Amino acid sequence: MVDVNENPFDGTDSIFERKQPLKKDTFTPDTIFHRDEEIEFYINALQDVIVGHDPNNVFVYGPTGVGKTAVTKWVRDKLEEKAEAEDIPLTVVGPINCRNYRSAYALVNTLVNEFRDPENQLPESGYSTDSVFEFLYEEIEAVGGNVLIILDEIDNIPADARNDFLYELPRAEANENTPITDAKVGLIGISNDLKFVDVLEPKVKSTLGEREIKFGPYDATELRDILGYYADIAFREDVLGEDVVPLAAAFSAQERGDVRQGLRILEKAGEYARMEGAEGVTEAHTRRATDTIETDELLDYFEHDLSSQQALTYLATTLALIEPKHEASTKRIYNLYSSIAESSGRRVKSERKIYEFLDQLSMQGLVRSAERNLGRKGGRKYIYEVTDDPTDIIKAALQSSYSDAVPSNVNGILEHYLEDEATEFEAPDTTDDEQQNLWQFT
């Protein structure tokens, strides 16, 4: 029973000293671990700016949480420091996270305003996209010298802007149709999608890949060093059990070598200890955190990283996968997408759009596809699967703002999916329309 006259909040925290270091995206470390080779490649690529040559274009890629943005910021700061000491004209914009922009106009508008004074900001609407690009070229020429633009998560650049950003922009000074004559432009692109360059046009690929730097996942030993550094700053002295950091590191290395995931485990383990009023964080708290971390991460995708249409497509792909026969063809995914979108009162997009949403999900590493040759029937089709456990995806969807799109009988279908092959549904071959009758849409 809760005493409503008693304030439940505690003014002290016996577990955490500072929680900010566990929020990797908002904390800048004083030390960068296990990225000496990548830093060396980075410095070599940008050395040309210091010695008077045109800046190179640099493409940095690797999975999430492996230090790409942290290293980029560190190298950027050192480059600016050296340029100032040597009186070399240099303007650096970014990193700008492309995930935050759903149109070419919005992204270019933000870049223009990065160059402009606060009292002379470009409005969010009122011009054509071509005009806004022209404003950007004018701003680049106005500052002159070397101009580096850093775009984080470039795989999220809207399709209608990719050629302009990744081909035209770095070569703008050589294009007689732009006002750039004296400025020298370089582009640094950071991507979580290792295959992003492969799907670009050859001329764009050639420009973007002038210098490529690959960041691989961390192993357990490296993660132990990194997580230990953050834990020493974040937690109070002597509250962490000796197995906590090694366990978080081992789990993260086994999953995908992601520092961000390890930090989330440490934070959640600390919160469990605090909720219990424990004197310290134990192995049990850490194991409990690892049990729920996957669902939490997927919930973040649903709530923060995916557009509503991407989220519905992701859910539909998962539903198609757990059906009897377990085959998530594009047509089947679209039929399920249409049903859950309509049943939850959301707009239904065209089947052509579903291909775009699936491509976007693939770029984010959430789904993957395999091409199947239909043989005598002729033609080919794509079969999709999700890269995370369908159970975790369904749990996350049920906790998200898309819970109203989840069929009411999903748990029953999921139970059958998880059963041994011998006890699966004995379902005959069915058409996509007949399969749809298995689901109960609310």
From TrEMBL:
Belongs to the CDC6/cdc18 family. This is ORC1-type DNA replication protein. Involved in regulation of DNA replication. Residues 314-398 form the Cdc6 C-terminal domain. SUPFAM superfamilies: P-loop containing nucleoside triphosphate hydrolases, Winged helix' DNA-binding domain. Keywords: ATP-binding, DNA replication, Nucleotide-binding. GO terms for molecular function: ATP binding; ATP hydrolysis activity. ATP binds at V66, G67, K68, T69, A70, Y218. InterPro entries: AAA_22, Cdc6_C, Cdc6_lid, ORC1/CDC6, Orc1/Cdc6_arc, P-loop_NTPase, WH-like_DNA-bd_sf, WH_DNA-bd_sf. It comes from the Archaea. One of its GO terms (biological process) is DNA replication.
